[in-house]
Amino acid sequence: MSEIDAVVFDVGRVIVQWDLRALFGKLIEDEGELDWFLANVVTEEWHFQHDAGRPLAAMLPERKARFPDHAWLIDAYAERFLETIPGPAEGTADIINELDDAGHPLFAITNFGAEFWSMFRPTEPVLGRFRDIVVSGQERLAKPDPAIFRLAERRFGFPADRMLFIDDNAANITAADLDGWHTHLFTDPAGLRADLTDRGLLPT
């Protein structure tokens, strides 16, 4: 028998692809300029502010004042965010469907801005398989803050040591480990499927 009663997924780079370059590569032709822009203007670190609950109405004017020559690109970040999600992580949805069909309770904890989440959630039908999803931007708590894992335990109704957490970010996995969760550091669906099979959550 598995020691795990529930499986908890990250979303970005586990269920769906996410890459700022997928959008801005369409808007900036020169590769060197694109690299500079993603390293200095619309960076993953800056984007994380929205994941952590900061509203776009505060972030965008501040950034445009700092980089006025790139104001239209900063607006594109807000208006065309869904283009940073080029498609599913091929194979993960099949695993989610198989786990749900087998009766395993499924949940998610995602670092995702609240405004972007409202745009994205209707576009991804497989999320309907989850019983509950903790969204960092809605809670104003973001991984790897231990508080988001404790919130998830209360929301999901299972203790940490009875849940498996799947994430592509090593810092988030470490935080979950320290809180007593079972964990899987996601690199690809094949590796996840093998681990779930070894744990008795999927058939051999």
Automatic annotation (TrEMBL):
SUPFAM superfamilies: HAD-like. Gene3D superfamilies: HAD superfamily/HAD-like. The keyword Hydrolase applies. Keywords: Hydrolase. It comes from the Bacteria. The keyword Nucleotide-binding does not apply. GO terms for molecular function: hydrolase activity. NCBIfam families: HAD-SF-IA-v3. This is HAD-IA family hydrolase.
